[in-house]
């Protein structure tokens, strides 16, 4: 009965009321972990059955655009990858990675991004990441699937200024590396509806074909926070840039301010 009550699924994400059944998988999992929703909608009531209709493709068929099919495939692979990473096999390494990063305090979206980092970027005892182990141990994957998964190791984490909507994607400039990215969401274009031009966003993105895809959780900031966002971008650029480039990066940020 609870699952059929539409009010059960209304959650607050970054100050906005949203239907938990329409948000990215990572946010669904975090909401379920906190006991806010009765189960993860993407997995179904039994915890493993996928929904009958894809949130990305809907009634997609062989004539669907290539980008839609790619997003749909990425959604399925990411769900399998997250399940793989959350298995008991990786529990010790996963818990250690989280505890080393946040101690006893978990802020909104932080756990999701730490899990995403653990899966895609953290080297385990044998030097491989979880995504590399997953790709190696699933021979049924096509070469295209394998290349997509391994491409996700190239995470871009930054402070983005959303410039425009481009169909079912957004175009945003990363204030950290000063590059422009066309970004999609594998949970469907509805996820991008709240990401309006003029807003700022902290996010993790990964390659998807010739575009990029949201990975982990995102936080939105109003245009009035521009000065704070530029300072945050300068701090991140300082941590990432070689010493010889730190002064130049800081100067650019100050000029923008």
Entry keywords:
single chain, 257 residues, alpha+beta, OB fold (Dihydrolipoamide Acetyltransferase, E2P), 3 domains, two-stranded antiparallel sheet, 8 strands, disordered C terminus
Characterization of this structure:
This protein is 38% helix and 18% strand. With 257 residues, the protein is of the alpha+beta class. The strands form two sheets. A five-stranded mixed barrel has the order 3-4-5-7-6. Helix 7 (226-240) runs antiparallel to helix 8 (243-256). The longest helix is centred in the N-terminal third of the chain and has 20 residues, at 66-85. The relative contact order is 0.11. The model is unreliable at 49-54, 57-64 and 243-257 (pLDDT under 50).
Question: Can you lay out the helices and strands and say which pair or pack?
Answer:
Layout (H helix, E strand, L loop, with lengths): L9 E4 L2 E4 L5 H9 L32 H20 L5 H12 L7 H11 L9 H7 L6 H9 L4 E11 L2 E6 L4 E6 L15 E9 L2 E4 L4 E3 L4 H15 L2 H14 L1
Parallel strand pairs: 5-7
Antiparallel strand pairs: 1-2, 3-4, 3-6, 4-5, 6-7, 6-8
Helix pairs in contact: 3-4, 5-6, 7-8
**Distance between the ends:** 53 Å
Number of helices: 8
Query: Oligomer, anyone?
Result: single chain
Q: What's the domain count?
A: 3
CATH superfamily of the largest domain, by name, is: Nucleic acid-binding proteins
Strand order of the largest sheet: 3-4-5-7-6
Short description:
By secondary structure, the protein is of the alpha+beta class. The protein is built from eight helices and eight strands; from the N terminus they run E-E-H-H-H-H-H-H-E-E-E-E-E-E-H-H.
